[in-house]
Amino acid sequence: MNTLNVNGRQHTVDADPGTPILWALRDTLGLTGTKFGCGAALCGACTVHLDGQAIRSCITPISAAGGKKITTIEAVTDGSDRVGAAVHAAWVQHDVAQCGYCQSGQVMSATAFLKSLPRGKQPSAAQIDTAMAGNICRCGTYARIRAAVADAAKSLA
Amino acid sequence: MLPHIDYRELPRALQHMLERDRIDACATLPRRSFLKLAGAGGLALGAFPHLAMAQASAAGQAASALKPTQQPLAFVQIAPNGEVTVTINRLEFGQGVQTALPMILAEELDADWRLVRSRHGSSDAAYVDPLFGIHLTGGSNSVKNSFTQYRELGARARAMLLGAAAARWNVDVATLRTQAGQVLAPDGRKLGYGELAEAAMALPVPEKVTLKDPKDFRLIGRPTNRLDARAKSSGRQDFGIDSRLPGQLTAVVAHPPVFGARLASVDDSAARAVPGVKAVLRVPLDRGAEGVAVVADGYWPAKLGRDALKLQWDTSSVEKVDSERQLAQYRELAGQPGPRHFDADMAPLATAPRQLQAEFVFPYLAHAAMEPLNCTVQLSEGRAELWTGSQCPGLDAAAAARVLGLKPEQVAVHVQMAGGGFGRRFSSSSDFVIEACAIAKATRAAGLNAPVRTLWSREDDIKGGYYRPMHLHRARIGFDEHGQVLAWDHVIVGQSITTGSVFEGFQVKNGIDATATEGMREPYALPMRLTVHHPKLNVPVLWWRSVGSTHTAFVMETLLDEIARATQQDPVAYRMRLFGDKHPRHRAALQLAVDQSGYGKKPLPAGRAWGVAVHESFSSVVAYVVQASVKEGRPVLHRVTAGVHCNLAVNPRTIEAQVQGAAVMGLSMCLPGAAITLKDGVVEQGNFGDFSVARITDMPEIAVHIVPSADAPTGMGEPGLPPLAPAFANAIARLTGKPVRDLPFKLA
């Protein structure tokens, strides 16, 4: 038995300790907002926060989450998280999503990035690209992602 | 996809399927929705045209003569609170049809857009393409073929609501008008659509309706955000992969390493010992192959079980394609006589003052949609229900019925939101759907009575075939000092996409597959001889966003640019001269891109060059003017300006997104790692590490401009892709002095 802290709640998960966090979230806890894209930390669709850091949940085993806090897209965009709410609002305003499948991961990467900046600091275009380079969008929504991250940063200033 | 289907030519097989679907309407009820809505009251018939007819008959009215595709009750639900839910007859997989079709219907309905919602249809007969008569999302046809359909649906529903209001107030219906979800009387009385819906539902559906004058459009043409924008950026949008039926199991399949191979031996003892694994099943797969499905209570144990299998494959009876040998074969084939798509006098080749010879190689490409392929199947006695993101739910239902030994009317496909597709979800053999059905059948036979979700890994997807075919093009062109082409001898070698599929009958003529030649020659009036070879190889191929134009546009637009360069002509002026007066949409799109980009006027930063290309595909024209450079031996795309002609722009916001996205997919084709190759029958790539696609760091600045038009809209899912790579290549050629002839680009 493994204990996971997900979005502020303790869960007991009966799974092999090597099970990636992704599958504990999706198949065991029914939190399907976090997506499976590649299983190899190459596309970023599965991005969650572990103690506030963006990680790839498809390769991070639940054994690595002991005593740590996992935060998923569901909690980041439920209105309780100031930065997450700003990113979500910018994503809607810029109509970023096309198929939308990768966007949970995009929003999680953007939120972690903006949280990593000193409050009020505006990111450069190059910093935004570097921060988002690990997230693939096959629909090619990158132009709107850039604009949405920049606007979210402005709204947080 | 399928740009050439003429609905009058639909083969007997498809007609039969259509008839079957009509009969089938009763069997494909989404039951849960019905129960929920029946309790809610209101105009809530949704996908139940037969029910509407039954109720109409019970009320003593004659059943309507309208076809299922014309029945508003199958497409519009109005809840008592005024919420309008529009059912779409297409798959939403990014292209924005889930917003565009409701806009079109809501326009004629005079709905309050803030209360409009959307949902997917199914394999129900109402949701066939009104022109093609089959369920189909492809060929950028959704808005094009359903524009009038959805306008008429909205107008019919509005007429019924007006009729209900007139009866309620006992006034002449002609005195009433509608506005933003309400019926208004001259004396100031108002009734919301939600209050009228139940009474409206009982009225006969009018056959003839008057549509709005387009100058009165309030929604159509207005840049509108997607209805699914909020859910898709908060993890709250369910996709097919998110299926969570009670007791559901997950299957992961060991596919053969070579297409079509069978099993020599299976040792599944270690796989069965993995906790959570419920069954290990040998199953028949697509193309006569075999595989082993590991069925477990989640993806991870199923995947661990698959990893633990010890399998030996018999590949002795299947062809093992090797990319290097294949290219040599294609080169040899290109020199041989073959069927001709166009013909012209090639004598001037011997005497033309200027000559140009070129060979182009295009690799296999995977679709690599972000949501891995999946399909959930629930079997019960004499019935199957499928949940999947399908571009062709009717064909998939028919294929499922064959595998399951059921009658077609016993199968229902519920279309699910899909995480991309680009053609892969319209497999001509329904490969991933029949695989999921075979697994569900074997699981049930093994005594497990549970719904089964078959889920592919990324490696299954990249290695699983159904690629954009590899192509070789060869051209020999004679022209004069003014760039006038005197003779153009052209050869295409590549596998046929539709041969062997149900579409062969009307896509393949005289041995030539129209999906391989689309985009050649037109709109340029060139003296071209086009020879086509379709070798048969053991690699499954399929349409891939913009299909033939993924390679033909590149060849045509780079060769013409080369002729312009060789004769010191401006590439824009040269194209305009070739268009003449016959192609006003091409001229308008190109001129708009030129004007907006500053081409020819604005000085470029040092090291940059302009590139131009324009191409029509699926009835829309896109022109790109780009700026590119070469940095440390690598081509870099800096800025893209698009000029788009798609006639009436229903939702300019989505059209902009589709062009931005198609440009990125076109850019992906140019970048290192954009190739699927085979070694001794085995696909060499397996994930995004070795089959790479564009990332945000590759993204140019992009501006999209749309030519104003009031003509009936054409589609925009695909047309933004074809001209991007040639525009980029033309800029690179201007910098290096050497033409780009390979995708991905090789600058050596």
Keywords:
heterodimer; A: 157 residues; alpha+beta; DNA polymerase, domain 1; 39% helix; globular; B: 748 residues; Aldehyde Oxidoreductase, domain 4; seven-stranded mixed beta sheet; five-stranded mixed beta sheet; 28 strands; 21% strand
Structure description:
Chain A: It holds the Pfam family Fer2_2. Chain A: GO terms for molecular function: 2 iron, 2 sulfur cluster binding; metal ion binding; oxidoreductase activity. Chain A: Keywords: 2Fe-2S, Iron, Iron-sulfur, Metal-binding, Oxidoreductase. Chain A: InterPro entries: 2Fe-2S-bd, 2Fe-2S-bd_dom_sf, 2Fe-2S_ferredoxin-like_sf, 2Fe-2S_ferredoxin-type, 2Fe2S_fd_BS, Beta-grasp_dom_sf, Diverse_Oxidoreductases. The complex is a heterodimer of chains A (157) and B (748). Chain A contains six helices and five strands. With 157 residues, chain A is of the alpha+beta class. Chain A folds into two domains: 74 residues, Beta-grasp domain (Ubiquitin-like (UB roll), Roll), CATH 3.10.20; 78 residues, [2Fe-2S]-binding domain (DNA polymerase, domain 1), CATH 1.10.150. In chain A, strands 2-1-5-3-4 form a five-stranded mixed β-sheet, sandwiched between helices. In chain A, a hairpin with a 2-residue loop joins strand 1 and strand 2. The mean pLDDT of chain A is 97. Chain B is an alpha+beta fold and 748 residues long. Helix content of chain B is 31%, strand content 21%. In chain B, helix 4 runs parallel beside helix 5, helix 12 packs parallel to helix 13 and helix 17 runs parallel beside helix 21. The N terminus of chain B is likely disordered. Classes of the chains: A alpha+beta (157), B alpha+beta (748). At the A-B interface, helix 1, helix 3, helix 4, helix 5 and helix 6 of A face helix 7, helix 9 and helix 20 of B.
